[in-house]
Design a protein that fits this description.
alpha+beta, 4-stranded mixed β-sheet, 3-stranded antiparallel β-sheet, 9 helices, 11 strands
Length: 305
């Protein structure tokens, strides 16, 4: 039986979610929102199965404990499982993976590759491409190949896959059969597979430069309420061109402005070293040139079949 929640939590349930979010600041204040968004995109109604600061009847909850963060699973309103973590991200990853596993999401080749358990390896000699276990996958295989099987009460609430048939499979899409842990060989629970997947899908905490220890943002010098000089323009408006040419009798010619400031020379606004902007070719002329170029190379083109 899992340990009662009352002895693990820092305060009574429900806990204020705004206070829990404040505990994530400034490292990862969007963690809960990102977890709900990930569940909403992968599981129908998955966001409602994740509780933050409150107990969900059929789902997982993330709560603040006395010595860390707690991920708790409830089934039919009955407390089934409790896991304690030191950091909130690990608790959220465990809860999100638990919702995915309970929803029956399939464990396929793409999921195993994204989770870092499988990778693609070509065999040049045999002209084949295979799925093989990564270094992390081989470590899991060595750890579980001769380890005792999970207890019956633990195995009853989870599903497992066998790792031995995955190594050396042809590179085609496949779905792993799930069920109880195999009697022999290496195995891995679907909950752990989704834990590794969620860690790769959740955005990493944003390290903002210039953030003080108290969470306040330190602005660089010259920003904020400090008055700064207006930026120098490298262009002229139409009204400025007309006022510059007023009284000269010349029409203002629009030239390519390439430097800061402008001067009046020979009755028109010009910039030293600038050139008149080249005229754009008409759309009809461009179409004709492309048609002629295509026709000239048609005889040298090979058939597409």
């Amino acid at each position: 039986m899992p340990e009662p929640l009352d002895g693990l939590l820092a305060s009574r349930v429900p806990q204020d979610e705004h206070e829990l979010v404040a505990m994530l600041h400034p490292e990862d204040p969007m963690l809960f929102a990102q977890a709900r968004r990930l569940l909403g995109q992968s599981v129908r109604g998955g966001a409602d199965r994740l509780g933050v600061g409150d107990v969900v009847r059929d789902g997982w909850s993330v709560l603040r404990g006395r010595n860390g963060w707690v991920a708790a699973r409830h089934e039919g309103g009955v407390h089934r499982e409790t896991v304690v973590f030191d950091d909130p991200r690990s608790a959220v990853v465990c809860a999100v993976a638990g919702v995915m596993a309970a929803a029956g999401l399939g464990v396929n080749s793409g999921v195993l590759q994204a989770a870092g358990i499988l990778e693609i390896r070509p065999e040049i000699s045999n002209r084949r491409v295979l799925w093989v276990l990564t270094e992390r996958g081989r470590e899991i295989r060595e750890r579980t190949s001769r380890s005792p099987r999970p207890p019956a009460d633990v195995a009853a609430g989870r599903s497992y896959i066998s790792l031995d048939p995955l190594d050396g499979r042809p590179r085609v899409y496949f779905v792993c059969p799930v069920g109880p842990p195999p009697a022999e060989g290496s195995f891995l629970s679907t909950h752990e597979v989704f834990e590794r997947l969620v860690r790769t899908l959740l955005p990493e905490p944003v390290q903002r430069p210039g953030t003080a220890d108290d969470g306040s943002l330190v602005l660089p010098e010259g920003t904020g309420s400090t008055p700064t000089a207006a930026p120098t323009r490298s262009w002229c408006t139409r009204r400025e061109r007309r006022s510059a040419c007023a009284g000269t009798g010349a029409r203002p010619s629009i030239t390519l402005i390439t430097s800061i400031g402008c001067s009046v020379l020979c009755g028109s606004i010009r910039v030293s070293g600038s050139r008149r902007a080249p005229s754009r070719p008409s759309r009809r002329a461009s179409t004709r040139r492309r048609a002629r170029a295509w026709a000239s190379t048609w005889s040298t083109r090979s058939p597409i079949w």
